[in-house]
Amino acid sequence: MGMSITGQKWVGTVSVLVLFTVAFLLRAVGADYGYFHGDERINEAAKVLTGQLVPEQHFYPPLINYLNAIGLAGLFGLGQVLDWWSGPSGFRAQYFEDATPFYVTARLLTAATGALLAPLFYGIARHSGLARDRAFAVGLVGALFPLGVFMSNIAKGDVALATALIATVWATLVRFDTPRPGRWDVIVALMAVLTVSFKQSGVLILAPLALGYWILIARGEGGRACAASVGRILLTAAIAWPILNIGLVLDFASFLEFQKIQAVMSVTGDADRTVGLVTLLDRLATPVLGLNPVWLVAALLAPLALLLPGVRLDHKPLLIVVWIALVLATVGTALLVGSRQPEHLWIANFAGLALLAALALA
Known about the structure:
Blueprint: H1 5-28, H2 42-48, H3 63-81, H4 87-97, H5 100-115, H6 117-127, H7 132-144, H8 146-151, H9 158-175, H10 181-198, H11 203-221, H12 223-244, H13 246-249, H14 252-266, H15 275-284, H16 293-300, H17 302-307, H18 316-337, H19 347-361
Helix pairs in contact: 1-5, 1-6, 1-7, 2-3, 3-5, 5-9, 6-7, 6-9, 7-19, 9-10, 9-19, 10-12, 11-12, 11-18, 15-18, 16-19, 18-19
């Protein structure tokens, strides 16, 4: 006799909670490592609490500052209850005396954001047709994703970018599973807006993904359904993006100036553009900051594995579209930046490839 629907939901909920807890503990354990990373803009988050929504640096969208500000507001409330400080003045004095609690709070929030990869991997596996035990194994891949664990100790937007991208993939899968696709088009749009609001480079993956997504809708549901999907997503994005990026909108000219500086720092000056591909392959094969050689082969061969008759996964065309989007964005970025490839550059790309490798091997 099969498990009741209530029992199935209970098992699913417990699986998600266990995966998130394991992932969070792995990421949170190193939150206080004794110094402040130069890329952590905790001062910008603190200024948000004073009403300053426009950041002083516009290298990236300001959403991560707003998210960290929420964490700092929670820290203020906790400190008030535990008598760590007295009022806003005491909170401010603590920041200038020893900012460690502020940095650790933001890092724990980053760890929690990164830990969401595990239940998202699990949810994608379930919507791809995998049984719970295999889906749980895929979820563990998200929990143990080495680069995700490493980067979760630095309070910046890269980890959130990866999580938002995987959430976008999850939402696209659910959209093809639901009898109410209109609602899920809106959710897909919101996840995509979150992705580019944490880091604008997310558009390099989202653009080919969106094209493939709409082609699949047109083929399966017709041109009118595709047009309606395009309209819903673009309208939702047009409403949500300015809200989540209000500090950028209020000072858009400065944002453009900072992007010129960003281009100078990021775009390669190498005469041989292929050096970027060599550097990328070296990164991919690195166990901690990449995927490791075995997982790399699995990720590269994922489309072939998905097409094998014995691999019984749902939504194979969509998964292949995701793979194509990731590969195009990854190769294009490598050619653009050349040898300048810091580890945080690849976290979203590698998370997506790790997911597809796990699905293919499951």
